[in-house]
Design goal:
Oligomer: homodimer
Radius of gyration of chain A: 24 Å
Strand content of chain A: 15-25%
Distance between the termini of chain A: 46 Å
Helix content of chain A: 40-55%
Structural class of chain A: alpha/beta
Number of strands of chain A: 16
Number of helices of chain A: 14
Largest interface: A-B, 66 and 66 residues
Shape of chain A: globular
Strand order of the largest sheet of chain A: 10-9-11-8-7-12-13
């Protein structure tokens, strides 16, 4: 499997073994104790602000010397506001209900036994992420609340920040009489450590990568444990017929332009033929005013060409435009015959992330909800709502574009499994 | 990935493409249509009994000529009773509630949107199995009801039977105006076909292997899609202190001896030190009468040696006995200090399948339920209850010893996922 030097292999095996042992204690920790660790962590983050910023300064300085762009530095920087948000988020996670131990669906069976499910932690998860050091605290707080252990592997560009943050977490765990090994940071930056982390099914139950598509594809291809993965967000807005045009313009605009870089921003606009002549010039005007480039099918191009303001922003769409996640002020536009063609197009070219229909027809809405095979399907709402906080999860460890286990925004529940419980009174099987 | 000859690669790609296309139709098929296909299938199986038995005869004859043992022939044989059970099971699956389209947890959010979950099919699953041709019908009926497509890959020893059964399924699908490609049997027996099947993430969403541990480990190691896998069932009975001795004897006996070969039969008996002197001689007598070999720790050996009837059946346990699934009239026996040691032993040596505590102490029962990290944990009930029908799933496609996605007995629900649905009225994100 791995050709890592023995020392990295031994290091990772040791980390894995400690994590597994700690996960047993975490699984049975009372809610009050876990919450105490989270509130203590918030207090430590505030108290240690200067020391954390000093450690962060080493990473920022190194990034500057390496000539990293300002956006990179921005993501790295632990300013006062970012640190306060991190502390506050620990308090928010403490306030969430504890998912562990929840029993449900208890039913009596003809044999006399009572059968139900109990929610329990997954065990140990590995978190692999780049640049943003706040992921250290997000992952740690969700691990603590959900009774899991976590092994964190951040990018080398944030190693000093991550080390300082992980030390705060371990301090908080110890003050709450929980095992410090429940949250461990891989202390080395060698790439071989990742290779080990994703191939230790004995010690790691699931891997959650956060980063570019390349990183996630590489990890998925090599992992020997399940991966909760988020590939692209090629999200669609389908403007149906019949439709409320004012609403359709407002929602399409919001889905595309409220922010360009999130994965739940719209990348492709489909318009029912019967709505095209009325709708496209109106949205074209909005996009033109905001400088959004429009990559159009022949039909939509013909309609939008009548709009002088849009002229400079129109392009002919190529096949690859239908599968592209731009994350930029660009949108692909296609006129489709009807709902049927819209659904087929989305299931063929989409990325199974988030898609919305704008319609006034109830049957169309229901068919879209049922037949579009994506993690989140919406009626008359902006795709930008597809996120753990907007959905009410209280926290988000990632978004899954898979169907297996967790789908869509993943909160605490995605870090748990449900086992079967049987309550009997001496029943025998015959 | 695969070094299969182009023709097998092309064959499997074609099967995969058809399955994916059929899965779209299955996902939106009405309940009545799916149930009609299942009832039609039951009727066809009864009507075609002679033709099916003729095809089966070819397999049975080949197995006889190859010198296969009687147990093997037994599993292969499609007698009248087996065929009638297959037909009846299709009718039972038709009578189950349709899981698809179920909406739950709909909640209003402060933004004004309503967010909930909708249960949908996984898409396409691959079923890999050995000898028993009835798996063809089990898998097909569960695929149809759950709105999935399935690709079946049976063993070469049952190829004629499986082909004849799959033809019945396709006929039933067509009569119900559903796509015949929803249930396809891999028509060739080359091993390379399995290699292709488990490495087509574009066409196959999950693999369910049924067979020996070797087969399942090989598939899990090579698969590029999730595998719902069932490795061993090293199930424990823990006799606590305090305990109702009569009940403990009856349940331990049932868990071990009611049948020896199922994966939910007990393989290891742990006894609290305070119960050992009273309990072990009694269960030892039962086991001795049934010829069950006892592989004992030093303490239990000392107690059981006082039992003349057991003498010939006593062995000293070795370390490997604690991890062994015997599937035979053999049990390992260990005296443990207390509940704590019992839980630690099970979590260390068990296979995370099914474990039971026999106790009258409520706090012990609750700790066992919570802390034993297995797919099914029981109080005062026989491990033999761990099965989809006893749990009320109405059907069982397999048992998962994993924690990810499905855990324990897997019924229709394990073949589904839940997507997010959002109902809005033009809401925008701010």
């Amino acid at each position: 499997m791995s050709s890592a030097p023995t020392s990295i292999h031994e290091l990772m095996t040791d980390i894995g073994r400690r994590a597994r042992a700690a996960s047993r204690d975490m699984a049975r920790a009372e809610t009050a104790r876990k919450d105490r660790a989270l509130l203590t962590l918030a207090a430590i983050l505030r108290a240690q602000r200067q020391a954390l910023q000093q450690a962060n300064g080493l990473d920022v300085e190194a990034a500057r010397q390496a000539g990293q762009p300002p956006a990179f530095i921005d993501r790295l920087l632990l300013g006062d506001k970012v640190l306060e948000q991190m502390a506050a988020s620990c308090e928010q996670v403490a306030a969430l209900p504890d998912p562990i131990g929840e029993m449900s669906e208890l039913r009596s069976r003809p044999s006399g036994i009572t059968v139900g499910r109990m929610r329990v932690p997954l065990g140990v998860f590995g978190m692999i992420f780049e640049s943003r050091p706040n992921v250290t605290i997000e992952a740690a707080s969700l691990a603590i609340k959900s009774g899991n252990a976590v092994i964190l592997r951040g990018g080398s560009e944030a190693i000093h920040s991550n080390r300082a943050l992980a030390a705060c977490v371990q301090q908080a765990l110890q003050q709450a009489a929980l095992p410090a090994d429940a949250v461990q940071l891989v202390p080395v930056t060698e790439r071989a450590a990742v290779g080990e982390l994703i191939t230790m099914p004995r010690y790691v139950d699931v891997i959650i990568p956060r980063g570019g598509k390349g990183l996630i594809e590489r990890i998925s291809a090599e992992a020997r444990v399940p991966v909760i993965k988020h590939l692209d967000g090629n999200c669609h807005v389908y403007v149906d017929s019949p439709v409320d045009l004012d609403m359709a313009v407002a929602v399409t605009d919001n889905a595309k332009t409220q922010r360009y870089s999130p994965c739940n921003a719209a990348e492709s606009l489909l318009v029912a033929a019967d709505s095209a002549a009325a709708f496209l010039p109106r949205i074209g005007e909005v996009f033109a005013a905001k400088g959004v480039e429009m990559r159009c099918c022949a039909q939509s191009l013909a309609l939008l060409r009548q709009l002088p303001a849009a002229a400079a922003l129109l392009r002919e769409a190529r096949e690859e435009d239908w599968i592209t996640e731009y994350l930029a002020p660009i949108i692909s536009i296609k006129v489709v015959a009807d709902l049927e063609e819209a659904i087929a197009h989305i299931n063929r070219y989409g990325s199974q992330h988030t898609d919305t229909i704008l319609t006034t027809d109830h049957r169309h809405a229901m068919r879209f909800l049922r037949e579009v095979d994506s993690a989140a399907v919406m009626v008359n709402a902006s795709t930008r709502f597809s996120d753990g906080f907007e959905f009410g999860l209280g926290a988000e460890i990632g978004i899954s574009t898979d169907k297996f286990h967790a789908r869509g925004p993943v909160g605490l529940e995605g870090l748990t499994s449900r086992k079967w419980v049987v309550l009997g009174d001496g029943q025998l099987r015959h």
